[in-house]
Specification:
Blueprint: E1 9-13, H1 18-29, E2 33-38, H2 41-50, E3 55-58, H3 64-77, E4 83-86, H4 102-128, E5 133-139, H5 150-173, E6 178-184, H6 191-200, H7 206-209, E7 213-215, E8 225-228
Parallel strand pairs: 1-2, 1-4, 2-3, 4-5, 5-6, 6-7
Antiparallel strand pairs: 7-8
Length: 232
């Protein structure tokens, strides 16, 4: 049976990527109200045209005060959000350790800050609703970092640690909530699979996904494997 998300409010951070469009389409198809957040109005307009029914919001998630204002506006119109899907990211690499530039680090660190800000601001929402869900995308680089990708791996590791901390908070504050980490080598070609897995989070036992890093693969090629068997 397909997961019915009628009545769920799900915010997608970094919604204008290919993965963001795929996730938005799947969530709308499951009946959820989707709040697509990004920084580029023209890209958000294109997303709204591609996925009818999506509610688009312009916000710099790297600015905590802007995220707090976004949350206030969402609460007035919709109430608490049931899900936060964080898709802000990007790759930056360099020539070995000495080639890891401050400019690349600033770009990657901002991706982490958007997760930190949005999860802090919407944490109480995810605790208050019957089945709050946080979903993030991580990388195999966390487990196998290279010198050329040191900045990238470090930023992803920080996001992993933060999400696991959120998961531990859920364990204490809302056992029916869950923070899930999908791990990929490359997300290209797995956008539809990610979208399907995000929708399925609401039909999963939270104790089996909370704080768990799951290696994302195409289900046609076999079942997903735990990238880290640790449970929170």
């Amino acid at each position: 049976m397909s997961t019915d998300l009628t009545g769920k409010i799900v915010l997608i951070a970094g919604a204008t990527s290919a993965s963001g469009e795929a996730v938005a389409r799947a969530l709308v198809g499951a009946g959820a109200t989707v709040l697509a957040v990004g920084t580029r109005p023209e890209a958000l307009a294109a997303l709204a045209d591609a996925v009818p029914g999506v509610d688009t919001r312009v916000c710099d998630l790297g600015d905590r005060s802007a995220v707090a204002e976004l949350a206030m506006r969402i609460h007035v119109k919709f109430g608490n959000v049931d899900g936060l899907v964080h898709l802000v990211g990007g790759w930056r690499g360099g020539g070995g350790i000495a080639g890891q530039s401050d400019e690349d680090w600033a770009f990657l660190e901002r991706g982490f800050e958007t997760l930190r800000n949005s999860s802090r601001v919407f944490y109480e929402d995810l605790v208050a609703v019957p089945a709050g869900r946080l979903a993030v995308v991580s990388s195999t680089a966390v487990d196998r970092p290279t010198a050329g990708g040191a900045n990238y791996a470090a930023a992803k590791a920080a996001a992993d640690a933060w999400t696991r901390a959120v998961a531990q908070g859920f364990t204490k504050d809302a056992p029916n909530a869950a923070a899930a980490i999908f791990v990929v080598k490359s997300l290209a070609g797995l956008e539809a699979e990610l979208a399907s897995r995000v929708v399925d989070l609401w039909s999963e036992d939270p104790s089996t996904i909370n704080g768990v890093r799951t290696l994302l693969t195409d289900r046609a090629d076999g079942e997903n494997k735990s990238a880290d068997p640790a449970r929170m």
